[in-house]
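Supplementary notes for students who missed Thursday's class. We covered one full example, reproduced here. Read the sequence, then the structure, then the short commentary at the end.
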Amino acid sequence: MIPIVLGATAVGKTGLLLALSERIPIEVVSLDSRQIYRHMDIGTAKPTEIERRLLKHWMIDVRNPDESFDAKQYREMAMSSVEKIISGGKIPVIAGGTGLYAEVLLKGLASVPESDAAVRNALSQIEEDRPGTLRKLLRRFDYEAFCRIHENDIKRTTRYLEVFFLTGLPLSLIQKEKEVSRDYGIIVLKRSRSELHKRIEIRAGEMLKTGLVEETESLLTLGYTSDLNALKTIGYAEVVQYIWGSIMLERALELIIRNTRRYARRQEIWFRRYQGAFGIDLSDLTETDSVRALENTILSVWGGNYG
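Structure (token representation):
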């Protein structure tokens, strides 16, 4: 089986996999809907160039921030990446925290209608006339999606509502109807709430110290506008407000920490659906024991030869 390592943002996936790569020959397929974008490094907590030289990561920097990219494209490219890793004699490890991308790998593409321009345009017009209306509609018609989709993610909100109005069924329900593929073994990394919150706080501060404001200014200078879905990502959205003078930098940091904690909570809730997953609670382990536990679990899931 192909190992899929899931975990909330800031749980420590990148560091563990880097340490693990010194012990067994792995390559990582990123399961992150924001790390696909070029020029967005700090705010997406993307592995650094040095880290990517030490451990090859696939599905990073595959699109510009204004280019479209959907779950279907992700699935096709990720599966192709897995095949290339295996043919190279390495163990593929799919790792990240984007639930939708995990779902299309584990269950395949749900039988949903193609995008309908008329419905999509009507929804866009509704939101333009009365901002916030789509969130209210999503809460009414697909409450599960409402709980896990960020309030600034208009693109996904629109898609879920589009499917509902075309089929009469919540997309969340349609997605649940398919069985999890036996081609994958799911590993969920966890930490205590207090520890994860502290790690999120520390990482948010480091992002600002290492140039998140400058990175966001650079994106705006390149012509990428704040209404792009990519720039509504947590971190960039708050810093844009600071750059515009709407809030102070200290308030931007507070909002990044708050919004990231809320996002992590939604991720944890999403991952609970995979009841047969292997769980590793990192709060109870030293760094060395964490790496060893992950190694043993990945090798158990993989169950094949390498090298």
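Commentary. Strands lie at 2-7, 26-31, 57-58, 91-96, 184-190, 278-281. The first helix runs from residue 13 to 20. If anything here is unclear, bring it to office hours.
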